[in-house]
Amino acid sequence: MENERYEPQKLEKEVLEFWEKNKIFNKLVEKNSGKKPWFFMDGPITANNPMGVHHAWGRTLKDIYQRFKAMQGFDQRFQNGFDCQGLWLEVEVEKELGLNSKKDIEKFGLENFSRKCRERVEKFSKIQTQQSIRLGQWMDWENSYYTFSDNNIKHIWHFLKKCHENGWLYKGKRSLPWCWRCGTASSKHEMSDGGYAERQHVSVYFQSPIKGRKNEYLLIWTTTPWTLTSNVLAAVSAEFKYVKVEHDGKVYYLGEKACKRLIPEAKILAELKGKELAGLEYTGPFDYLPAQKGVVHKVVLWEEVGEEEGTGIVHIAPGCGEADYVLGKKLGAKAIAPLTEDGKYIEGFDWLTGKHVTEVLGPILSDLQKNGFFFKKEKVTHRYPICWRCKEDLVFRLDDAWYIKADGIREKMKANNQKINWYPEHVQKLMEDWLTNMEDWNISRKRYWGLPLMFYECECGNLEVVGSLEELKKKAVNPGVVDKLPELHRPWIDEVKIKCQCGKEVKRITDVGDCWLDAGIVPFSTLNYLEDKKYWKKWYPASQVIEMRAQVRLWFYSLLFMSTTLEGDFSYKNVLAYEEVRDESGKPMHKSSGNAIWFDDAVEKMGADVMRWVYTGQNPSFNLKFGFNIASEEKKKLDILFNLVNYIKTYLEDNNFKKSKLKPQDILTKWFLSRLETLKKSVKEDLDSMQSHKAIKELEDFVLNEFSRFYVHLIRDKVKRGYDGKDKDEVLQVLYAGMLDSMKLLAPFTPFLAEHVYQNFFRQFEKTESIHLLDWPESDDSLVNKSLEADMDRVKLIVEAINFMRQETGIKARWPLSEISVQLKEGAESMKDLADAIKTLGNAESVNFVKDVKGGKEFEWGKLKLGSVLKDDALIRELIRKTQELRKTGKLQVSDSIEALFISDKETLGILKKFEMELVAGVGAKKVAFSEKNIESKGELDFDGKKVKIDFQRVQ
Predict the structure, then answer these.
(1) Overall average pLDDT of the 207-219 stretch
(2) How far is CA 153 from the centre of its chain?
(3) 638 burial class (0-12, 13-18, 19+ CB within 10 angstroms)?
(4) Is the distance from CB of 808 to CB of 859 less than 8 angstroms?
(5) Is 167 within the bounds of a domain?
(6) Domain boundary residue among 869, 896, 926?
């Protein structure tokens, strides 16, 4: 490993082969089997496409905590999950098959379509498994759970039966956010994650004549002109100021602020409050349509009206908007629903019937102009609901759907939420707010590849909800069909009819379930809740879950809803929620924007451990900036770590190291071990509190700064050839123990690098086959000395001040000083034992603590004064540095011995000869020679007027 470069891609593939060949993961599971259980519950990844780098953040965090707990000896299930149903998958299969609508799917054949959906899951679950393995994630990959499994489906049936028995299940008609392309509704919690986008639409201002008032009009506004065919009401705010104005020979009513914005030149005839307009009747723009027959248009009061946009008078179409529907229902207004499932106008809409909602903007504007209703149009950019699956703009459509009531469970869920430990803590409040405001759960979708809802509605009014396969067989008209079902999906499950209590045969409703039912049941289905309660109780509730913060309204919510329903409690104890992965400039990653990074590209270019280092160092409360430039900078840290390992390995081998019990005597050893034990304790506390980002920063600071740049600097002369002090073996033991414990602590974060280092050096001294089979390094409080750590922190500050003074005066750090005088404001007595550390780090002949420094420079802890530069010593340091540079240029290893020759004048050689032993040790030579002859050399040093030529050759 000496002088080996850190090449993560090569190294990681070798480690993967080692793990696979030696079944290391299996041995870990066996090692901890039967011990105290710790259940990490995996949120299922959608098996629909290859992974992106955004998937890898969550999977890295999951792996870190499972590895940490495994090293602590906990028995774990290591079960990965795949999300397999729902529109995400259906839309991709449609693209693959060239299908564009539900009619196309039905023409293709529902059985064929379901088979294709299953095939896609099987294909991409294999791809994602291999990608996760490449990331270094350890799971029992042979036993992943799939949400399309019959077992998962049967557990959801059981849950829905329970909801029905509780009186929570009902069918309701509402104006729902609807995707015409997918032919189904979206629920509120689905829309909370990726359900809105910035869109530019045409907004329309139209003038409707007020009945009984000649030449007077309401000026009304809408951003959805297609809904004007269903206009029923016009809404105003009771207390807003409105104006009656004259403009272009007509009299208009509109909001005062809107008037100043739209027609500031209009003549104001009167001012009035909105409540004075309430009750006015007006003529609608499409009253001639058959669908509008019998409608009386009125002005109504509504607190949701705003005055910053539009006219202050809002168009209300109860059949085409969620809020509109609620208002209309409250007022008893007619709801005119114009669209079919696929977005076409139904019968009763005259020339619009059969036309698609996306094609009618122009014709509707023309119709408004022709009939005298058009006033103005303008483009507006606003946040608009979109289909989270196919990204088409949603419409609102009046339709039946199945719901679970929220009020019956709301307070229990809120109480359970308070018992869960959330990190970051503010996420608990987000869940609290969601639960406080959550509406009834829309659980039905008018689609194909999903959970079959076992609801049987009879014409007699009876509703049967089947809660198990056994119940289905018992009630089935044709039980033989149940026994022959290849799987519990459409179209096969649709063939099963049951007999109603009235005697009639009843078919299952064709709707399928919300995909968050699939994921929310996993604490029960994966633990075989229905058949093995003992096993379920062993693991339930989950010790930890980790997913994006957006899952508060999705998976975390559905988990809590279903566990509160089935058991009255929570199904997870601890939650780590993280934010989004963005590109290097902070912009969201999107395939369409060209800034998305696929996992395979990233891992091959930067390596898995570098990716993991980037992920782990990010505070999960904030979005993560990810990219190749950032990764390149982070890799430099692992390069330093790798070089430190090379350094330690080289000098341990060079000194024929033999592992023995470490008995700390030297004050530097005591400080280092104190810091190491403090680190062990703090890293464990950070991981226990789900703050892996803090843990890695502490590890990074210790290894890269205190170990590599500080401790190694202090002891480097003690590990070189020629040094035979009594403390040499102690230093070597410290280097060994310090690096081994550092690697153990790093193992969950950078599993490949830790394994490589362990196998290539530590394995020869340790009995355990893999670093991941070692126990977690517990801290030894008896070695912790906080006052010594504090004193060493002051040493660092003193050295920083010394280096600053050197820079100010042009004295290089390599040039030794005759002395350094230190005056401290307090604590000088305890610092005297660390004078040698200051002397080494400050590069001085001596360090003196005095009560009063004459002259000098003040710093935070006191005052400093630097002595003169020792010119001869400085010459030797520069000569050693130059020789080492030439060794490196000549591609010599640290362990390669040389014979060195230094050529100069008589006076300079006289100086060099006084430092012969320092030169031997400093340049890695068996011997050095001196000459005044001017011969060819490998290089030359010119220092302070003295010139020295340097030559050497490698020797055995």
Answers:
(1) 97
(2) 29
(3) buried
(4) no
(5) yes
(6) 869
* Token pair 């019998």: residue: 294
In the chain, the largest separation of any two C-alpha atoms, in whole Å, equals 120
Is residue 938 included in any domain, yes or no? yes
Q: Which residues contact 881 (CB under 8 A, 6 or more apart)?
A: 814
Tokens of 517: 């039912």
Q: Is residue 287 part of a domain?
A: yes
**Residue bearing tokens 């229902």:** 329
What is residue 358's three-state secondary structure?
helix
- For β-strands 196-209 and 241-247, DSSP reports them as unpaired
Instruction: Note the helical H segments in 617-772.
Output: 628-654, 667-688, 692-701, 712-715, 728-746, 751-760
Strands 545-548 and 267-273, bridge-based pairing: unpaired
The terminus-to-terminus CA distance of the chain in angstroms comes to 20
DSSP calls for 487-544:
SSSTTGGGG-EEE-TTS-EEEBPS-EE-HHHHHHTHHHHTTTTTT-HHHHHHHPSBSB
Q: What is the 3-state secondary structure (H, E, C) of 85-153?
A: CCHHHHHHHHHHHCCCCHHHHHHHCHHHHHHHHHHHHHHHHHHHHHHHHHHCCCCCHHHCEECCCHHHH
Same domain, 293 and 431: no
* Six token digits for residue 94: 């449609």
**Structural contact between residues 817 and 867, judged by C-beta atoms closer than 8 angstroms:** yes
pLDDT in tens, 287-302: 999 999 999 999 999 9
Contact (Cβ atoms closer than 8 angstroms) between residue 406 and residue 183: no
pLDDT at 1 over 50: no
User: Do residues 138 and 67 touch, judged by C-beta distance below 8 A?
Assistant: yes
Question: What are 936-952's pLDDT values in tens digits?
Answer: 899 999 998 899 999 99
DSSP 3-state of 669: helix
Burial call 254-275: b when 16+ CB within 10 Å, e when fewer: bbbbbbeebbeebeeeeeeebe
Residues 6+ apart with CB under 8 A from 367: 285, 286
Give the pair of three-digit tokens for residue 641.
């770590």
Identify any residues that bridge with 176 across adjacent strands, giving them in sequence order.
397
CB atoms within 10 A of CB 326: 14
Q: Cα 116 vs. chain centroid, distance in angstroms?
A: 31
Residues 6+ apart with CB under 8 A from 315: 206, 220, 221, 222, 227, 228, 231, 234
Residue 22 neighbours by CB under 8 Å, 6+ apart:
769, 770
Which of the listed residues 815, 839, 869 is the one where a domain comes to its end?
869
Q: What residues does 172 pair with on adjacent strands?
A: 401
pLDDT digits 0-9 by tens, 418-447:
999 999 999 999 999 999 999 999 999 999
Average pLDDT of the residues in 218-229:
96
Closest CA to 586 of 630, 616, 615, 626: 626
The Cα–Cα gap between 698 and 705 comes to: 10
pLDDT the model gives residue 850: 87
Do 865 and 880 fall into the same domain?
no
Same-domain pairing of 915 and 828? no
Other CB atoms within a 10 A radius of the CB of residue 685 amount to: 14
pTM over 0.85: yes
- Determine the Cα–Cα distance for residues 856 and 843; give it in Å rounded to an integer: 17
Which position has the higher pLDDT, 745 or 395?
A: 745
Residues β-bridged to residue 455: 465
Band (2; pLDDT cuts 50, 70, 90): low
pLDDT at 637: 97
In this prediction, residue 724 has a pLDDT band, given cuts at 50, 70 and 90, of: confident
Cα gap 691→231, rounded to integer Å: 54
Range of the domain at 71: 40-149+156-184+407-445+524-578
**If you average pLDDT over every residue of the chain, what do you get?**
94
Q: Exposed/middle/buried for 309, CB within 10 Å: 0-12, 13-18, 19+?
A: middle
For the chain, give the number of residues.
Answer: 956
